[in-house]
Amino acid sequence: MNLPFKRSKISICVGLIISTGYQANAAEDEIEEILVSSALNETVANTVHPVTILSGDELRQKVGNTLGETLANEPGINIMSYGTGVGQPIIRGQTGNRVSVLQNSVGVTDVSAQSPDHANAVEPVLADRIEVLRGPSTLLYGSGAIGGVVNVIDNRIPSELVEETNFVVEQSHNTVNNEDKTVVRLDASAVLWGPVC
């Protein structure tokens, strides 16, 4: 009649023996803590929003015949090329309609959206700045820009009068197809003096 009581004593003893053995094994399985630290060269704002900006001398050194050639050596960006005049950017493996190309923050509508073997209408040689956005910040430009956004700022239509006249001539030569390219850019404002009759 004391059988259930004996079974409970045996169960408790077996449980204590197993738990002490488990605790001994747990002490052996502890992993040594390793601390890794690194100095960040960027601000937190740039780390959270992965943005690449090319401007000034850096842009002039990297500029190519196409937008894809210009951005080809940036981290996470490759080029999809169907020849010397066509080079579309591939951002994190995404291309075509998943990469939105903007000019002065307005979407570029050209035949490159229909077929990747057509060049887009953006001229990187005329650009003042090229911005590449990746990650969640691209959602501001719509759901079609899941791969990334390339915004080419050229200030072709200035929002205010130009104070200084700026004249730039750039020339390049491509040995693959013996292509010569000359780009001329003039930024100036015409100011009328006196009353207009």
TrEMBL record:
Segments forming domain TonB-dependent receptor plug: 45-149
Protein location: Cell outer membrane
Molecular functions per Gene Ontology: siderophore uptake transmembrane transporter activity
GO CC terms of this entry: cell outer membrane
Top-level division of the source organism's lineage: Bacteria
Residues of the signal peptide: 1-26
UniProt key word Transport: yes
Any Pfam family: Plug
Gene3D superfamilies: TonB-dependent receptor, plug domain
SUPFAM superfamilies: Porins (SSF56935)
Topology within the bilayer: Multi-pass membrane protein
GO process annotations (BP): siderophore transmembrane transport
UniProt keywords, alphabetically: Cell outer membrane, Membrane, Receptor, Signal, Transmembrane, Transmembrane beta strand, Transport
Family to which the UniProt record says this protein belongs: Belongs to the TonB-dependent receptor family.
PANTHER family assigned: TONB-DEPENDENT OUTER MEMBRANE RECEPTOR, TONB-DEPENDENT RECEPTOR NMB0964-RELATED
Protein name: Outer membrane receptor proteins, mostly fe transport
